[in-house]
Amino acid sequence: MASLGSSSSVSRPPPDILRRMAFPLMYQDIFVMRFVGVNASDINYSAGRYDPSVKTPFDAGFEGVGEVVALGLSASAAFMVGQAVAYMAPGSFAEYTVVPARVAIPVPGLKPEYLTLLVSGTTAYISLKELGGLSEGKKVLVTAAAGGTGQFAVQLAKKAKCHVIGTCSSAEKSAFLKSVGCDRPINYNTEHVGTVLRQEYPQGVDVVYESVGGAMFDLAVDALATRGRLIVIGFVSGYQTPTGLSPVKAGTLPAKLLKKSASVQGFFLNHYLPEFRGAMDHLLKMYAGGELVCEVDTGGLSAEGRFTGLESVFRAVDYMYMRKNTGKIVVELPPSVNSKL
Fold first, then answer.
1. What is residue 313's three-state secondary structure?
2. What is the pLDDT of residue 341?
3. d(CA 185, CA 200)
4. In degrees, to the nearest 5, what angle opens at C-alpha 3 toward C-alphas 34 and 36?
5. Using CA atoms, how far apart are residues 203 and 119, in angstroms rounded to an integer?
6. What EC identifiers does the entry list (predicted)?
7. Deepest in the core among 93, 193, 230, 233, taking most CB within 10 A?
8. Residues 10, 32: contact at Cβ < 8 Å?
9. Rounded to the nearest 5°, which phi and psi values hold at 225?
């Protein structure tokens, strides 16, 4: 990334790109380049499950952090060239893009940690605040707890003085979860999640933050306490299937919920956009104050090394679906890298 400071230090987009973007820039947009985040739902969007009306070719990616390199007229009042910004908008898998000024959020610098908060952090914060009913002493189960959004669910539940259980796939991830406050990591490759929950939490868990789906969803439903709440923020185990779904025991679900006066509720961040800016501001303050760990995985341990340049987005997505990442997967787009796409 180009350094902040005088405008002369900022990497300018090529003149032909600026000419093509001149019309929208006249009105409200900021032109930026940045780090980009990889999300499990990138596959859903690319498969047309979010908006079937979108036809190929179309831009993918949901979030980025970078610097302003050009300003529209209305944007010039709030931003300046060289300023670091974060944003959540479709089409982030690009070296340059036009972003509406109203969705850009100033951040203190060009750090990938700020990117972790945009989708992953706010999803955990808003869903637990609005739907979780967290309070001291409650037992909270987080599935895929060492992932991009799971890491925040664990920490926010601990901030609420809850007892936190987190599922993960390795000893290294268990160690990470302990480091951010998880009371009981469960490595499902060495322990059976259902057995652990039945034996150690016979009264059940009060809240489940669930993103895996399939068999893990069924285990989580069975583990709910009386009046327990299960929040579905995804079902990643099914995203690579033709339907995008993993089979669950839906036939018995109504009886199980009725028996415990329990509930299952979905959470989709786009339906809570009025709360997004406040959540982002709060999380930024927590991070600045040292109250929040924003774990970033740039692929340093992957077979082909760090995720650098747009061509590495494909590797980053595969890395995530192989369950290799700890924290949020981030791809760096430095100015010195020429995309091969």
1. helix
2. 40
3. 12
4. 10
5. 33
6. 1.3.1.48
7. 233
8. no
9. -80, 170
Whole-angstrom distance, CA of residue 294 vs CA of residue 177: 12
107 DSSP 8-state letter: -
pLDDT at 171: 98
Contact present, 128 and 209 (Cβ < 8 Å): yes
3-state helix, strand, coil in the chain (%, to 5): 40, 20, 40
Mode of pairing for the β-strands spanning 263-266 and 29-37: unpaired
Within 199-292, strands assigned E span: 205-210, 224-232, 263-266
| Both tokens assigned to 43 | 């596959």
Strand ranges in the chain using DSSP code E only, listed in sequence order = 29-37, 63-71, 84-88, 97-100, 104-106, 139-142, 163-168, 184-187, 205-210, 224-232, 263-266, 296-297, 328-332
Start-to-end CA distance of the chain, whole Å, equals 19
Nearest to 117 by CA among 341, 337, 330, 322: 330
pTM of the complete model: 0.91
* Low-confidence spans in the chain with pLDDT less than 50: 1-9, 20, 23, 26-27, 337-341
Count of CB atoms situated within 10 Å of the CB of 335: 12
**pLDDT at position 340, please?**
43
